[in-house]
C-alpha cells in the first residue's frame, strides 16, 4: 500500500527497546504474544503516538522525566502523522510558530544520527510563489522575520524560480520567497525515531492501548483508565490529535479542546520520465492553494480548498481513518491549479489520491498547555496540518512547561486557555474550521476577522449599535465595534478591503478620534472580563496583596491599576481593581483573560470557604464615556458634581444615572483621555445608553469603536496585555515601576525577580517609535512583528502599531534589546542605550526611520491633568 | 383567512396545468376509480353520513377545511370511521442487524388513525422476530441475566435514522412483554426452534396480541396507559424483510409492498413482487374473510372496497375496533379517562357481528437471492399508488447506473494520467450532474409526488406538493416511506461458487 511506500521503513535494525521488550506485535507475522502489562503507576501518561505525543515523550525524557508512559490506541505514527506530507517549513507568520518550526527542523536534522532510525531527512529548501503584489508583500514580511531569526531566506525573481525548479510555469508570477533550509522528512519515521530515543531514555511505550478516560480528584489528574487497566499518574498529556476533543470530553471533568477534523486531499504520482532530483525544492503556491513536493521522483501535491469537508462532527467511530473516500470532483480545483503551475505534468501517471483527516482549530494556531479546570492535564493537539513542522518545537515547549512550570518562550498565542467553553460547541467548530482551512492559503492581512461563529456573545446594545452603522470584530467570542460607518458612506466589500496599505476606514476612525479629543464619545466595552472577589474577613485583601504587585490596601472607592505577575515578575494579567468595600474587590481584566485569569486565581487563592470569587462579566454592560465633555454629560445625568475636586481620577462610586440606580462609575479610561467607565447592570444598559446619548447630544456625543481606542492608546504609549505584555515582560521593562510597590509591607509573587531587576537593570525595554519618513497614503502600514534596527543592527520587534491622528505619524510600540556586537550575548538596556541610537523599522523589507521615545508626549494629555496623574493613569488595556 | 387562501390555491392550481389530477376528482365528481382513493374529503360521495357533504356549496367547503385544521372536536364528530382511518396517517420504518442470529431486517410500517400503533410496531416488531429466531440456549442466558439483574446481551443493532423517534417511557413495558414472550418460547420447549417463516408469523401474532392485552391490563402510570390505548385503537400495516446471505424472507400484513429489482442477462430490468396487497382488491383475501365469517355477512364484509366499509387494508396491527367484541371495547374505553383528548375514535362499524374481522398474521414469502437480483424495495402504499412496480424498479435501476456514470471508478488497473483525469473532471463539473439525489429513496419519493403525465418530475408540481400546509397535504398525498436494500451481487455469486 501507499502507506508503506510513504513510510519506507528500514528502522528495524535500530531495534527499538519498546518493541523488543513489549513485543506488542510480532514482526514476522506469527501469532501475537501477550503484551507486556501496563505499569500500575507513572509520573506522566501521554495519550497518542503521533508526532506530537512522541515529541513530548522525547523531550520529557531529555529533561530528566523518565517515568513516562506513552499509550497509543493503534500503532505508533499510524494516524494523521503517517499520512502527512512530511514538509518541514519554517515560513510562518507568527513568531512563536516560526521558532517551533525552526527548532523542529534542527532537531530532525540530527535525529537520524542520534537514534539510528532513518528519518528520510532531505534539505530541499522551499519556494513560496506570489501571483500578486499583495502576496509578495506578505512573503516579504515573513522573509524579514525569518532573516532576523537567523534563518536564511531571500526574495527571488520569477526567473530565479525557474532555475530552482525545472517544471514551474513562471508566467503569472511576480516573485517568490526561497527558504533554502526547509526540508522533507518521512513523518512516520521521525515519529518512530523520537519514540526510539525516548524509549532508550526510559519512556515506556505501549501500542494498542486506548485511553477511555482520565480520572480526576479535587481538580487534579490522578490516573488514566485504559482498556488494559488503570495507571496512576500525576500528569496526563492529551496528544490524541483529531480525537483530542472527544478524549477531553470523556472524563467526568470535561476539558475543552476546540478542534475539528477536515478531510485533506493530496495526490501521489508515479515517477516522472526524468525523475525529479532528490533535492528539488518544495513548491508552495498559496494563490493556487497548493503545495507540491518531490516524492520518489514523482510528485506529491495537495492543497487547502475553498470548500473543505469537515468530518467526525458526530464523534469517532463514524468512519475508520483508512476508509475515507477519495473525491476526485472535490480535488478538481486543486488539480487544475497544479496543472497550471506545472503544465508538463499532464502525462504523469496517477498513483493515488490520499484522503487523510487533519485537525484544525478556531484560530489556525495549535493548542498547547494545561487545562484551566484540571491541573496536571496537558494538551498538545490541533496542528492545522503543520504537525511535522511544529511537532518538535511544540513538544519541547510543552515538556518545559511540565517540568519547569513554564516554557522558555511566550506561548500565549498557543495556550489552551485562550479559548473558553464557548468554543467547544461542535456546530461552532464545524463552521469555523470550514473557514480556517481555506485561510491557510489566504492572504493574511492586518485586522482580519473571522466571519463564522459570530454573534455569540453580544452586549445588550448590539442591535442598537448595529443599526447605527457599527462594524464588528470578535474577541473571545464577544462582538465588539471596530468603528461606525456614517450614514450614506459605503466601505469596500470584505474581500476588497484586504490591504497592507492605508485602509478604507481611515477617515472614519479619524473623526471618531477627533470627537474623543474634542467632545465626548461613548464606547461599549462590555467584553472585558470582570471578577468580584470578596471575603468575610480580610482574606480577600491578604490574598490579593500577595497576588498583585501594586498596593491594594487603599481606601474604599479607590481604583488601582496593577499587574498580576508570575515568579519571574512577568505579566500573567494586567488589570484594574476597584476596592468596593473593606472586604470586596472588583477586578477588570482584558477580554481574553476570562479563562486564564480565572484559572490563575483558582490555583493561587487559598482554599477558604470564606473567600469567594465570582465571574460577573455577563452581569455588567460597560460603557466608556471618553473626552473632555464626558464630565458634563455625566453630571447632568446624575445631578452630582463630577469635577476632579469631587470625583478625582482613579475613583469608583456607585451612583444613579438617569432613572437607573447602582451604576458603578469609575474615573478611569483606557486611553489616557479624560472620561469615565460606567459598569451598568445589564437590565439598565439600554436606558443608560439612551440617556447618555440624549443628554450628550448638545455636547456633540457620538459612538466610537475599538480602532479609535487603539489609536488613542498607542499614541499615548499604553501597552496592553496579550499584545505588548506577556508572561515574559515585567513592569520594570515597560516603565511601570510606579505600579509596583516593592515596599508594601508584604511579600507578593514576583517580588524577588523585580528587586533583582531593579538592582541589575533590565534586558529589554518597551519603547515607542514614531515613524519619520513614512508616507501614510503611499507606504505599507506597520502591523506588528516588524524588526527594529538600531544603528543598522537588529534589536527587537514591534508588538503593536497604529496611526496617531494627533501626531499625524505612525506610532509603533516594541521591545528593544541589547545584543553584544561580538558574542551576541544579551546586555542590560539603559536609557542612554535607547536614546543614543538611530532607529529603523523594517516593514516587508523596506526600512523606515523612526524616533525612539521612552515616555509619551505630555502634550497629548489634557492640560488640566497634573503630571503625576498622567503617570498614574499610564495604563490601559484593549 | 386560511380557508380562503386554501380554496383560492386550489382554484389557482386548477388553472395551472399541473393540477393534482387524481386527487382533484375527490372534491368534484367522485368517479369510481380503479385505484384506491385514500383521501376522501369530508364532503366526498362515499360518506356514510351524507349530511355533512355538500358539493356545490363553497362555503361549506371552506368550513370543512377549517375543521381539519382547528376545530378538533367538531371534526371528530363529523368524521366517518373510514375517514378516521384515512387521516392521521403516519409511516414508520426500522432496520436492524441481528446480533444473536445471522441476518438483517428491514421493516416499513404504515399507520392509520394516528401514529401510535406504527410507532409501537416499529419499535417492537423486529425484537419479537429476533427473539423468535434465537436458540433455546440464548434465551435461557437472557432469562438468567434478567433474573440476576445483570445486563442482557444486546439483541439487535438498530440502524437508526435521525428522524426516528422513540418512546422512552414505554421501554420497560415493552421489555416486560418481550420477556414474557421469550419465557413462553422457553416453555414451548420446541427444539430446534422455529423456522424463519414460523418465527415471523409467531412474532407478528404475538406482538398484536400483546398490544391487545396490554391495553386491557390495569396500569398505574397514566402515560403508559394512554399510550397503550392509542396504540390499540390505531392501526398499522407492516412489511418486514429478513435477509441472511442468499435467503430472503418477507413477512407482510396489510398493503405495504416489497418488490425485487432483477437485472436480466439481456440488460433489461424485471420485477418480482414478494408480497400481496391485503385489501379488497385481492381475491384470496376476500375468500379468506368469507371463509372466516358466516355466509350472512358475505355482502357486508367489504363495502366500498373497504373492510366493513372502514379499513382499506384487510390485515393490520392494532385496530381493536375491528377485533374486539363491542362489549370489550366499551368496557376498556369506559375505564379510561379522557378518550377525546387522546384522539381515539370510538365507533362500532355497521354489520359488526362476528369479530375479529382483522388479523395481523402475516403472509411470508421466501426468495433465494441470485446474482441478478440487485435490490429490494419495501415501501408503504403511498408510493405504490403513485408509481407502478415496473416504474419504481426502472427508477432505482436508472439511479444506480447514473451513479456509476457519475462516479467512475478511477481504477489503477488502467493507469490514468493527470491530463486525462483533469479533462474528465472538468467535463463532469460542466455537466453539473451533482444535482442528482444522493439517496435513492429520496429519488423515488420525488418522482412519486412530482411526476407529471409523462412520468417526469415536474418541478412546479413537486414544489407545490412539498409546500402544502400540513393539514392540506394529507388530502393530496399519503405518507410515503421507502427502504431500498442493495445486494452485493459479487458476494451472492461467490456463495454459489463456493457451495457448488
UniProtKB/TrEMBL annotation, chain A:
PROSITE patterns: RHODANESE_3 (PS50206). Residues 44-87 form the Rhodanese domain. GO terms for cellular component: mitochondrial matrix. It is found in: Mitochondrion matrix. The keyword Cell membrane does not apply. InterPro entries: FAD-dep_OxRdtase, FAD/NAD-bd_sf, FAO_M, GcvT/YgfZ/DmdA, GcvT/YgfZ_C, GcvT_C, GCVT_N, Rhodanese-like_dom. Keywords: Mitochondrion, Transit peptide. It comes from the Eukaryota. Decreases the sensitivity of PDP1 to magnesium ions, and this inhibition is reversed by the polyamine spermine. PANTHER family: AMINOMETHYLTRANSFERASE, PYRUVATE DEHYDROGENASE PHOSPHATASE REGULATORY SUBUNIT, MITOCHONDRIAL-LIKE. Belongs to the GcvT family. Heterodimer of a catalytic (PDP1) and a regulatory (PDPR) subunit. This is Pyruvate dehydrogenase phosphatase regulatory subunit, mitochondrial.
Automatic annotation (TrEMBL), chain B:
It comes from the Eukaryota. One of its GO terms (cellular component) is mitochondrion. InterPro entries: PP2C (IPR015655), PP2C_BS (IPR000222), PPM-type-like_dom_sf (IPR036457), PPM-type_phosphatase-like_dom (IPR001932). Pfam families: PP2C. Keywords: Hydrolase, Metal-binding, Protein phosphatase. One of its GO terms (molecular function) is [pyruvate dehydrogenase (acetyl-transferring)]-phosphatase activity. Residues 76-487 form the PPM-type phosphatase domain. Belongs to the PP2C family. This is Pyruvate dehyrogenase phosphatase catalytic subunit 2.
